[in-house]
Structures are given as structure tokens and as C-alpha cells.
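Morning. Coffee machine broken again, so started the prediction first thing and wrote up yesterday's gels while waiting. Chain of 109 residues, entered below exactly as on the submission form.
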Amino acid sequence: MKDTLLKRARQGQLIKSKLALAGYTMSDIDRQYELTPGATRRCVIEPNEAAEKAIADALGEPAHELWPERYDQKTGERLSPQPFANYERVPPIRQRRKGDVDSTAGALT
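Came back before lunch.
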């Protein structure tokens, strides 16, 4: 579980970096695609179909490649309902640095 949460944290940082290299902030994506403020930021850590599509469009990459755990690997279709694991919170960076992450739910040990 811990490895999955850390992988998602790294994946989120990679997506943020790609947006920055493309000249976008997450707020830019929210405004340009008329999303709720903060939708793009939250999408990096939990599923949000509209924000996923907006980020994928801005980067020119398929959403199923940016978030493979949210899509069927054979068809590329978005999973519905999303697996429960996709909603688990990634521990804050301070906990990740210290290694104080419980392997069951990202809680402090």
C-alpha cells in the first residue's frame, strides 16, 4: 500500500512538472477549461474525469497514460466506478521524507 501511495505522489509531481514545462499552472487549466477552482490540483491525487481530460488535452497526452490506474488498460476506457484505492490520501511530503507512513492507510505511525 505504501508503495502505491508513494507512486501516486511521484506521478502527481511528474504531471505538475509536465504542466509547468508546457507553460501552464494548475489554475490556468482550471480557468481555461472552466473547471471549479482547485479541480486540477485535486485531480492529481484523486479521480476527477473533467480535470483529467483537461490536463490530458493541455499536455497533448492520453489521460489513460497519465493515470493508468484510473483506466482500463486494454480499452483505455475510464473505470466506473473508480477503485477505492484511487481515493486514498497520499501522505504529506513531510511524512514521506521521514518515513513515518503506516503501510495501511498513509497514517502516522
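Residues 2-98 form a domain with the 434 Repressor (Amino-terminal Domain) fold (CATH 1.10.260). Going to sketch it on the whiteboard this afternoon.
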